[in-house]
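Chain X:
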Amino acid sequence: MAFTFQINDDIKFTRNEVFLKKAEALKPTINTMRVTPISIIELTNDNGKLNGIGTRVVGEINDLNQIFLKRDDKVILDFGDHYVGRFSIKLSHHGSPQDAPLTLRVKYAEVAAELAQESSEYDGWLSKSWIQEEFYHYDELPAVLTKSRRYAFRYVELKVIDTSPKWSVSFSEPELEAQTSADFNEKVELPLGDQQLQSIFDVSVKTLRDCMQDVFEDGPKRDRRLWLGDLRLQALANYATFNNTELVKRCLYLFAAMTAEDGRIVANVFTSPQNIPDDTFLFDYSLFFISTLSDYLVNAEDEEVLGDLLPVAKVQMDIALKSVNELGKFSDQEDYPVFVDWSNDFNKETSGQAIMIYVLKQFIRLLEKSGENSENYQRILNKMLVYTKEKLFDQEQGFFVSGQDREINISSQVWPVLAGVLNVNENAKLMKKMVAELFPVRGIATPYMYHHIAEALFISGLRDEAVDFMKQYWGQMITLGADTYWEAFEPENVNYSPYGSPIVSSYCHAWGCTPAYLIKKYLL
């Protein structure tokens, strides 16, 4: 059963109740684990860490209840690793009777650099309501700060705004109820001879685990949503680690259940307090529903899912093909943009062309798997391949070009390799030339695009270059203090934040988790 609804004045959506019920039946159990801090720390200046902020141990956690705090005093607890969950702590009063309320500020931080920022000074374009900070008033002590809102953090700073001159407050029994839909007891181990690669793999697993909640979230700090581009990459990492195919299946049904009236799948959906689609549409994200479905069926024999979701996949492909002319040329549409990466400083038309080819190949395989005729799609694929090789590859320069100005950029080389436009030898030649002439990467800030660059190097047989590339990117995040991989990172500008401040940046982000997949697929 399906019905139409609106979430704003412009866009109507179709809601498929059958698919939503299937998604709801696949809702995972959220596992919890009790975690206590490992030490009391203070911030230090450390040029080797993010934003020049390091930490130093200044006390044992067992001595916490012996620290008495008054106005402007603070204490920072270190849980030793990144977690997602709810924090609680006991508060006690010392001295004369409590003649004024306690006002307390609690800050939660994924990285130490967040604690060095004041929320009152933040002036970025992203909502300041994402800042992980709470204020509490206690008229009577003792009391317990209870596990209320879920946060993503390693550090907790407790700052006393005020008591009164006559008494002080102490804290005891700090605790975090960590949560994930992955199994805390499941050890995802892959012994590697290279210690740096081992760390890169382990942090990748940790990132994925903390993003596995009710759905595959993009980031547990923010936006706490199911994004299709992130889902595709999370699913690949998941197959290489936890192999929770049911969670992938749930996410596929959620996207398929809430499509625009014209059939397009949205870029992301909300699942709390109710299932509802966002009103953002990205050309390649909608197409990647097909990729995610295809990858799922490679890892899980599931005729029911194929039967249910192939028609939805077909609508995405047919809509996308409206942007391809009779010659096999793709043209980017302003109202249905190709994402590829956050940066809009490079032309994305050739990337969109190659992504179409990449997904069209997967779609044809799905049609063949279901016994449906794929001849028309195969004909279009052949045209697109010919156009890409004959019109978009500049023989004289040895690179793919993009747009009217025939721009040469990294993405326009990477995506044709991923799409299999060239043969193995041609791929290797192109990637070697790219590394020699277009590296180091500049102006690309997301692990999302860095993943595709790394995989293109692996596919082309440039194993050593791919490993070095991973170490220079994901490895550098670890050197700077990452427990989980970040939403955005520029090696040429290590303190970069897309929002102008680390206080709202996400430091556990789904699209950074793919090294586990890359290592397991290409290095073992």
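Chain Y:
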Amino acid sequence: MSDRVQWANKEWSVEAICLAVAVFCSLAFNWTFVGKVIETNSLQGTSGLILGAALTIVATALHLLLFLLLSYRFTVKPVLSLVLLISAAAAYYMSRYTVYLDVDMLRNVLHTDTKESRELMTLPMIGTIALLGGVPALLLWTLRIQKSTLLVAFRRRLIWIIATLVVLAATAFASYQPLSSFLRNHRELRYLVTPSNFMIGLAKVGAGETKRKPRQAIGLDAKLVPQKPGQKPALIVLVVGETVRAQNWGLNGYARQTTPRLKAIGPINFSHVSSCGTATEVSLPCMFSPWGRADFDMDRIKNSQLFLHVLNRVGIDVRWIDNQSGCKGVCEGLPTESIQHVTKATPYCTVEKGCFDRELTERLKAVPRVNGDQFVVLHTLGNHGPSYYARYPASARVFTPECLEDDLGRCTVAQITNSYDNAIVATDAVLTDTIAYLQTVTDRDTALIYVSDHGESLGENGLFLHGLPYSIAPQTQKTVPMIMWLSDGIKRDRHINATCLSQRATQPASHDNLFHSVLGLMGVNTALYRADRDVFASCR
């Protein structure tokens, strides 16, 4: 009988298939993990060899254990096929951009819309998924599954699980010193072990979503300070930037002038600002919360109302205008408008490609006037990667040659930086055009605050994009620009000393200041307010 016939007629137990796929996953999808382990210089000498063998056995046994818990006769093929395809995509993504698939990054991935996903689906990525995920998955479907009675199958599965746990325990015991030392000093590397990183992470994300309750109201004691006679109502615009890092911000002394129009206006520039997270999914809710990074608790933030709800509760008209994939719960239950998918072309939008951020200024102009104060958030697309070149119009094409690829691996770091900096030039134009509009509003006291949600890596130490765990993320991903422009009326009516505020802007600040500074600027009294986090407090 030929080998081909023997292969076709051979029956495989579910457990044997799980073992084969576990071994394949450990060998095929963990090159980024292996590279990082090598970088730690932990594989030197005899103890290094023991550590390498232990890590391989532990990873394979962990994957096998996960597969044994999820795979049965009728689920083994679809479950493991899906694991293979996702693992191939994850391995490529981690290798190309050196990202870590922790819970926060997985939340980002799950909330990525179709438009963003298309930018990441490059030909090399598709090829990797097809070769390392598709081919093994197709092979998997050719196997014949062994039939067993329920009792026999249960007994065999129990034996396999116990044996796997014994192997894990024995390996940990035999290599305890090098293994425990490595895991203690490099805990973040567990987010590179594929597929356990996304399998365990997705389970945690799912468990968190299951526990989600209606957002708990905060600031129930909030009250708006009555306006003085003759005081105009306020129109405050908060522009939330996307992926703009402080190092490339012209007003911060960057070698290139990426903010020439803002420099001419001279807003108050905060030059040392830290973000709450390294990804939108964390930073955006965090910066709108009263707790920030100092009292960080993502579960509490996710299950609580944020400062827009406090403003709305005291009668301030609140609106959110979005050019991204949503507000991450920040604007839940409040008036929102999205321009990401338009059905009609405008000077700044096309139906096919969406809108440049300049369209946000036009939508701001169309916001109807109401009695009392108004607070409008413009959520920009900013410097969202990897397609930096798609974020700016031809008028912002200042630095060349550009990277005109979705796959950053096809470009030099210089080209990537040119495209990234051009996107900041476009943001500079959006902010100055918005300020110019606010200067024409004479029936209100106006102000603009701009702050980016997180930074970005542009090839430093082989890192690209963002989203590394905060504890190991470089400063390029954790430092962001922030500016404030205040009209003469708001400085007068809110008793703000601009010279003092300019001096305050030279000192460290963070996303933690936003909640309290906005409440202070809008005149909202609540026990949640902390004057020590209000950048205006010492300058009134």
